[in-house]
Amino acid sequence: MFKGIEVHELSPNINLYTLKTKQFKTDSVGIFFERPLSNEEASKNAMLAAVMKRGTQNFPKSRDLYRELDNLYGAVYSSNISKYGERQIIKFQMQFPDSNYIEDKSIFEKSISMLNEIVNHPFRDGNSFSENYFEQEKKNQILKLENRINNKMAYAFDRCIEEMYKGEPFSVNEDGDARMLDELDGKTLYDHYKNVLMTSKVDIFIISRNDRNHYAGEILESFEFKNQKSKPTPREKHIYPAASPKYVTEKMDISQGKLVMGFRTNIPYEDSLYRPLLVFNEILGGGTYSKLFQNIREKESLCYSIFSTVEKFKSALFVASGIDFDKKDTVVNLVLEQVEIMKKGYFDEEDLGNAKKSIISSINSIKDSPNKIMNYYYSRILTNSYMEADEIISQFESIDKEMVVKAAEGIFLDTVYFLDEKGELIEENKQG
């Protein structure tokens, strides 16, 4: 599969991936549970990641849990959720010193046992999570959701996605919905937890300096997964017919307008034009050298910030900008103008070289962090793209201008979302 990674099928629904590298003086272990992204589950999964940080059956209080982690030479544990297309991933990760650098040569086994304790034996009261822990984390989660609105650009970006993919799983926020939390208690969340263990596809990652051949046996002995009913998450819808753009405006008491434009590309990540699309995006809005930045911010002074990004799983491209309220229509038209100019091939070899250099630099930076490495390989697994980083870099290096222009041919505007000034939170919708 991958040149540097070994794969062990522990069961039809549980895979172990081990990577040997001399890059770090720590070992890292990650357990990823794959869930379908849905409004019914998103809040529950986010709550699981939070509640399961609080304690285990043997270490029922947070201070007990973290004292034991300190006993493991300062092991670091985290749990969180991530959105990959129309999948919501619950991640449990631990990092601890490599046994070559400490006296305790059983640190790996002890840390694996601790991670199993956290995942398979969370603190509970009978058949329910602790109501005390649940209510505390519920309040924290509601506060987190309410605070979404404080980061106006992130809020505008999320709202554009909600409008562009209304009725689709991708419109669901990975942190869930405060209204759904009202229907939960410790018992219903514990029932969901048991279902997650039984019905999720599980991928386990180990990154270590040491020989990996014996890890599969130790994982089988240490973890208690009884996964039986996992179903694959279907490929996301990613091809859409062209239609008149939808315009959505919300009004809020803010000091700067936030504009997000959503484009369809209809280029799936499986397509040979996907990497040329990434180069197109980098030239368009990937940095200070990009067309959007140089022409709309620097030359015309019409925005405070502007960038573009590609959504891999839904074959979309987004342009986001902070602007003065009265500049919205002008900026929308200039963004469309820059997209059309690039479609016609009006960019030079220096633009192409800068874009490829930036993308390749980002790929090379993956090796600097165990978490980046896990996320990189996990994304490759989800997309059934089993090339090593060096092969991907080679593909980027071979991309020419004609390939980039070809990738841009089918891009069209779908949704324009604008967060405007003043008044109550209202919406104005229209079709272009």
Could you explain the architecture of this structure?
- It is a single chain.
- The mean pLDDT is 92.
- The chain is an alpha+beta fold and 432 residues long.
- 41% of the residues lie in helices and 23% in strands.
- It has 2 domains: 5-222, Cytochrome Bc1 Complex, Chain A, domain 1, CATH 3.30.830; 246-431, Metalloenzyme, LuxS/M16 peptidase-like (Cytochrome Bc1 Complex, Chain A, domain 1, 2-Layer Sandwich), CATH 3.30.830.10.
Stretches with pLDDT under 50, minimum 5 residues: none
Query: Which structural class should the secondary elements be placed in?
Result: alpha+beta
Major β-sheet profile: 6 strands, mixed
Q: What is the number of beta strands?
A: 12
H/E series? EEEHHEEHHHHHEHEEHHEEHHHHHEE
User: How many distinct domains?
Assistant: 2
**CATH fold group of the largest domain:** Cytochrome Bc1 Complex, Chain A, domain 1
Give, in spatial order, the strands making up the sheet with the most strands: 1-2-6-3-5-4
